[in-house]
Design brief:
The protein is an all-alpha fold. It is built from seven helices and no strands.
């Protein structure tokens, strides 16, 4: 099957960046199609007990929240993590149905279309990252695409281990 959903409808930089981010988001959701509720919560890797399909989807949702709302827009961090439990978004994911996590991820992603469309790619983030650096919107879009694509590989592996489903 030839995939065309990662081909931008226009070839300007913003459209390319947002198309690839949307593509990786859709891929993450597709990896979860048909997974049982029980399997979505299973941790298969002894060295990574938080790595579940539910945990990864919730992580992606909260990563976008952090980069867009906290870093780019400079809002107060109201994420689920704490200093004592920095991976809490992955830990609590197993307490919710995967369908809810996928819906929240889709809603959150849709909410960011407006600030992405309304700002130049060169717009500096209000919030700083390490060492006081203020990244621009372009960097955030690239980073989120990389992060989502990396976790799509994890979702692929987990899905195959759980029920034998492989990507086409």
């Amino acid at each position: 099957m030839t995939r065309i959903d990662d081909t931008p409808p226009a070839w300007d930089e913003r459209t390319r960046l947002t198309t690839f981010l949307d593509y990786t988001r859709a891929t993450a959701r597709a990896k979860c199609d048909g997974i049982s509720a029980e399997n979505a919560r299973k941790a298969l890797l002894p060295g990574s007990p938080l790595m579940t399909m539910s945990g990864l989807i919730n992580h992606l949702r909260w990563v976008e929240y952090h980069w867009f709302q906290v870093v780019f827009l400079g809002e107060e961090d109201r994420g689920p993590w704490t200093d004592e439990d920095p991976d809490r978004e992955m830990r609590i994911a197993v307490d919710f149905p995967l369908t809810r996590l996928l819906d929240e991820y889709a809603e959150q992603s849709a909410r960011y279309r407006e600030p992405v469309a309304g700002n130049s790619l060169d717009t500096r983030a209000e919030g700083a990252i390490r060492d006081g650096l203020h990244v621009d919107l372009r960097w955030i879009l690239l980073h989120l695409t990389e992060e989502t694509a990396r976790h799509n590989g994890h979702l692929d592996i987990l899905r195959e281990m759980l029920d034998g489903t492989t990507a086409g």
